[in-house]
Design a protein that fits this description.
four-stranded antiparallel beta sheet, eight-stranded mixed beta sheet, Immunoglobulin-like, alpha+beta, single chain, elongated
Length: 476
């Protein structure tokens, strides 16, 4: 009997060995259950402790109740301003940030490369005119810095804060183009574009370090924010948003959420529908995932979502996580989705001043049928590019020439067919369609010397009438 049992066990083992379990990557992509942040042949640093933050003696009842924000968040009607913002976010701006970040090489927390990358992000924020700070942290044997920039809300009656974040550190040996250069490039691009606007509610743009060692930087950041009583309404975490190897993958994006944060996913879905023509993404609600910097926002009672590419990047945590293995078109789409969502959540509007009236320089006297050169130049207070509308006063116009750089001098020639006095008018318009007042220049055709000669002849005739002898002398 024992021999029979032993034979059955051996046969079962042989069958098992000849039919291995289907691997993770063999599953059809429609049904894959992605385990975000799971390692691929690299050392992985789990979250310290038991995947729960150090509340420093706080009772769980002290955590804020996660309800909808105080103001009534509703998607605004189709907005030309949001479309303009979306269209500004293109491959050029994303690649500039992505190439600079990956240029530092692997950005391992605590290394000089990570420090230099942090300095780069900080200086980029400053160049945008944003308030920026280093958030120094020390946790679980590591010391490093988060980088934060703030765009202050204009609504003085509200303390609401909205965050877009990503992590700028990477694992050893990996340039981290997707993980998470892509998310940081998206938040830098959003910061650059939104710095030109005003918002009702405060935005923080945050780049975390220490993510690869177990969400260390975000743990310390959120704990400080909670201790300060910060009213963080929603956090948009972008981590690995640039990998897509098929058209299907490139048309879908995953949003991870907890029960309290479903309203954010619903809002993002509305954004995706409203601006689908300009974004081109379907939003896939994907449930809970602890494995990125949104996690501690949840643990400390804040609402947050985790935006992640639809198909998991096979080059994750490897030397092949490079720009060449990314889908930049997909990165544009995911970044635009986050930008539009953030702009709608914070009730963004354009703050811009119209150009100054243009100067007009050129001859004020002339002859008919002769072309004369006239120069025009307008300064835009926001350094926006400008167009010019010119009315020559004779029924001829130059309609919105340009755009030209602010302060750039342009020269246009013109001739008048008939004698007369003409009022030349010009005004400037910036790229946001804000127009200056008119500036004018009076031009006399023919020249003033003809008028002077006529007066001289009239005086001479009066003189001859008074003294006929003079007229006779001239005849001689």
């Amino acid at each position: 009997m024992k021999k029979i049992i032993l034979s059955i066990v051996i046969i079962t083992m042989l069958i098992s060995l000849s039919n291995p379990v289907t691997s993770f990557t063999d599953k059809p992509y429609e049904t894959q259950q992605y385990i975000i942040r799971q390692p691929i042949d690299v050392e992985f640093y789990p979250i310290p402790g038991d995947i729960s933050p150090d509340f420093q003696g706080l009772d769980i009842q002290d955590l804020p109740q996660r309800n909808l924000p105080h103001h009534n968040i509703e998607l605004q009607s189709f907005s030309d301003e949001i479309i303009y913002m979306i269209q500004q976010l293109d491959a050029e701006i994303l690649l500039r940030y992505l190439e600079n970040l990956t240029g530092f090489g692997p950005r391992v927390t605590g290394t000089i490369e990570c420090e230099e990358a942090g300095d780069y992000i900080y200086n980029e924020f400053l160049s945008m005119g944003l308030e920026a700070r280093y958030h120094d942290w020390s946790y679980d044997g590591y010391d490093d810095r988060n980088i934060e920039a703030t765009l202050q809300g204009m609504n003085e009656t509200s303390d609401e804060i909205y965050i877009i974040c990503g992590h700028y550190d990477s694992v050893s040996g990996s340039p981290g183009a997707d993980d998470d250069g892509s998310g940081v490039a998206a938040l830098l691009s959003a910061a650059y574009i939104m710095s030109q606007y005003a918002v009702n509610y405060t935005i923080r743009f945050v780049a975390f370090s220490g993510e690869e060692q177990g969400l260390l930087g975000s743990h310390e950041y959120v704990e400080e924010a909670f201790g300060n009583g910060d009213n963080i309404v929603a956090t948009l975490n972008a981590d690995m948003i640039a990998f897509a190897i098929s058209e299907f993958d490139g048309n879908n994006v995953k949003i991870y959420e907890d029960d309290f944060s479903e309203w954010i996913t619903d809002f993002i879905s509305d954004i995706g529908d409203e601006y689908y023509e300009y974004i081109g993404l379907n939003i896939i609600p994907s449930g809970f995932s602890w494995g990125s910097d949104h996690y501690y926002f949840w643990e400390f009672g804040y609402n947050a979502i985790f935006c992640h590419e639809y198909k998991f990047n096979q080059y994750y945590h490897s030397p092949q996580d490079t720009i060449e293995n990314l889908n930049i078109t997909y990165l544009i789409k995911t970044s635009r989705l986050l930008l539009a969502t953030l702009a709608e959540l914070t009730q963004t509007w354009l703050v811009s001043s119209p150009p100054n009236p243009p100067s007009i320089n050129g001859p004020i006297n002339g002859k008919p049928e002769v072309e004369y050169d006239y120069s025009f130049s307008a300064i835009d207070p926001d350094n926006d590019r400008v167009y010019y509308f010119i009315d020559w006063g004779d029924g001829q116009t130059e309609e919105w020439l340009g755009p030209y750089n602010s302060g750039e001098i342009i020269i246009i020639n013109h001739s008048w067919a008939e004698k007369g006095t003409y009022i030349v008018k010009a005004k400037a318009r910036d790229t946001y369609d804000l127009e200056s007042d008119w500036e004018t220049l009076d031009v006399s055709i023919p020249r003033n010397r003809f008028v002077t000669n006529s007066l001289f002849l009239q005086l001479l005739e009066k003189l001859f009438n008074a003294f006929p002898i003079l007229k006779n002398m001239l005849k001689l």
